[in-house]
Design a protein that fits this description.
single chain, mainly alpha
Length: 203
């Protein structure tokens, strides 16, 4: 974890890269890509549940971000703006599919929020992997907009206000979507006998 001075330094670097990138400096934008490629990919994977599609989505998100830099408002976080572009692209891809229910064909990449110091042994890692796959399988049964709200809230820990801004809606609408999503997940988990583990992961 970065200390305060490191965080300030990172923000200053980001600001400098942004200013140069907005002037057409591709090297500076490359620094932004390197800084955000992991969270962008992880969001795309959570949304699409396919590593190949997630890689393509991440690449497309960065291309769109670069070509739309003039529309970026510095008053908002660059990370929020970038994740918004990513999630919107993923929503478009999901809407093009005839079926939303997807099969899990490989393990999820680990997410920091799911790790703890006490879960480093082989047996704990197996349990963790199984929990990640179970949670992902539940997420794929949600409508795209519900899935997006859940991922942004519980994995990226964005505020209701940030999510509402990204999804172009109101805070009350986001709270409503999250409530309905949690209810749907509970119903699905109950049917599968997975409610305790599911609630632990998204609560």
């Amino acid at each position: 974890m970065m200390n305060k001075s490191q965080e300030i330094g990172a923000l200053n670097d980001e600001q400098a890269w942004l200013e140069q990138a907005m002037k057409g400096d591709q090297v500076a934008f490359g620094q932004l890509v390197e800084a955000y490629q992991t969270p962008v990919y992880n969001l795309a994977y959570r949304m699409l549940n396919n590593s190949g599609e997630a890689e393509e989505a991440a690449q497309e998100a960065f291309v769109r971000a670069y070509t739309r830099l003039e529309s970026y408002n510095p008053a908002h976080k660059f990370s929020t703006w970038l994740l918004s572009i990513t999630s919107n692209y993923c929503i478009d891809q999901l809407r093009k599919r005839r079926a939303i229910l997807l099969s899990i064909d490989e393990p999820l990449p680990p997410h920091p929020a799911l790790h703890s110091d006490g879960a480093k042994g082989p047996e704990s890692q197996v349990v963790l992997s199984e929990q990640q796959q179970m949670v992902q399988s539940l997420l794929t049964e949600l409508e795209p907009e519900y899935r997006e709200a859940v991922v942004l809230r519980y994995w990226y820990e964005l505020s209701y206000e940030e999510i509402a801004e990204m999804m172009n809606t109101t805070v009350s609408a986001i709270k409503s979507r999250l409530f309905r999503a949690r209810r749907q997940l509970a119903e699905i988990g109950l049917e599968r006998g997975l409610v305790p583990a599911m609630e632990k992961e998204i609560a």
